[in-house]
Amino acid sequence: MIASVLASAVLLWAGAAAQNPNQGAWYSNGVVYQIYPRSFQDSDGDGIGDLKGILQRVDYLAELGIDAIWLNPIYPSPNKDFGYDISNMTAIDPVYGTMDDFEELVAALKNKSIKVIMDYVPNHTSDQHPWFQMSAQGHSDYKDYYVWIEPSSYDVPNNILHPPNNWTSCFNGSMWEYHPGRKAFYLHQFLKYQPDLNYRSPNVVQAMKDVLTFWLGKGVHGFRMDAVFALVENDSWRDEPYLGGPPTSYNSYNHTMTAEQPETFDKLRQFREVLDSYAYTHDNVTKIMMTESYNSDYEDIKEYYGTPTAPISTFPFNFFWITQGTLSTTASQWATIINNWYNQAMPAGGWAQANFVLGNHDQHRIASRLTPQHTDIMNILQLMLKGTAVVYFGDEIGLQDSQLRRDQGVDPVGLNSTSGEFLASSRDPERAPMPWNNTYNGGFTNNSRPWLPLATGYWDVNVEAQRMANVSHLQVFKSLMELRKNPTMVSRSVAVEAFGNSLVVYRELSDNPTFIAVVNLANLQQTVDLTQSRPTLPPTLEILVKTVSYQEIEIGTNSTSSVANSSNIVLPPLTGLVLKTF
Fold first, then answer.
1. Domain that holds residue 575
2. For residues 482 and 480, what is the distance between their CA atoms, to the nearest angstrom?
3. Cβ(420)–Cβ(527) under 8 Å?
4. Taking every annotated instance into account, which residue ranges of this chain make up the domain Glycosyl hydrolase family 13 catalytic (predicted)?
5. Do 37 and 51 contact (CB within 8 A), yes or no?
6. H helix or E strand, kind and range, residue 184
7. pLDDT tens-digit profile of 382-416?
8. Which DSSP symbol is given to 96?
9. Greater model confidence, 274 or 151
10. Smallest Cα–Cα separation from 474: which of 433, 432, 436, 419?
11. Residue 259 sits in the same domain as residue 224
12. pTM of the model
């Protein structure tokens, strides 16, 4: 039965070039490829990925057709939180290499027209950072670099010092840690090893701006700013409203005092000014600022964009595909998730930049969170939409989570969970190394023990195997990237519609070819009549891209086609096509 159009899930969106400062910028239709450096390629046999390893894979990155790589932290760190506890923000951790290695990598990528984006952690440092060491000692120049408060009370009989309030860390437990040397509590929104910087200190603000300028001078073209929601706290120090649940759990409170305070946006705006000023005075190439906050309130998200005259983020990450997209999400719901970002999260006026994120180092992989068959479907949707696409390494080959044992885990979040919750809560599974081939440890390292076990099945799911295969997720991804870079695609508006359990993305421009993605999200065959909403479509459409599942069915039935009937597109379960008008 031919499904009917759900008209409520329709969007037509096109930022007018005259109003949109992003139009034509390198990232406006760009693809940012996230690399978790520990897991990409090991060059020295210690079982940990490094900068020279990434350098060895530059040709692969160019082969993908990406516009930039985003590197997770490569700074010196005690690794209590795998690089997000930084002890020196302007150096390279020796486990990853040297500054010379970094500069060589930037140069090699530049020769391939690939830019570098650094992870920037503005909220906190390691407790081993010299700034914190001197602040804890009360050194006059660093005394106010962190948030220090004296105990609220002292329980003499039990010898207990009480923290200032009930604020709870993102990793659970009190947000306050007593330091006997300073005789005060310091704030840590995350681990106790990650003390929060005090952004009410002008010296801290300037020091963090200097960090940005340092890396811009090294040829970096932007920053992913970590956990920006936590940058500033309300200095009334009042308790946060208790919502119920375990008193030590972060989710048991409404974080009105510690998340997204007004001053946070002012500090972020100042960071953006550093990037814009550097671009203006140096190479006139836009430097981007991607901000991380898992906020589901559209009005709050808009604040991260700023205004046309006082911009903040180039874009705040769009995590709704991760937080709301599940196996039970219908086509209509997917259309709403996509359209809501264009219509509600982005400020009006056509000047803001859209973005779509499918996965990252903190979330289970697409092929595990959904199914391996969803790999091509999700990549089609992401790469056919208008805006910046952020791709997590390995998702182009349908890499799945590593099913490691608890005793093999290293992530503190997972290790602090109960044994039954380890795989669900740990971030280790999605951080497992990249499989390059079917040799021992997938060609990632010649060490007998990589820092994390590779995903089971890497001998089949690896880059070399998919490069050589006629039908593979990698081939589909590369075809989509080639299409995305086609000049006839770039300026088109986008419309998203649901047809029963199928989702359709149109990229349209008057009197020009129309590109259409059609994906079946159901476990049942679907038939789609595109002429119900586009009656002027020609009767026959050219097929440009087919998902692996679709191609495998064609091979199994010994039938193949390069065209589709616009009024009768038959899609087997969990398959998809990209089409074009002749």
1. 491-581
2. 5
3. no
4. 34-431
5. yes
6. strand 184-187
7. 999 999 999 999 999 999 999 999 999 999 888 88
8. T
9. 274
10. 436
11. yes
12. 0.94
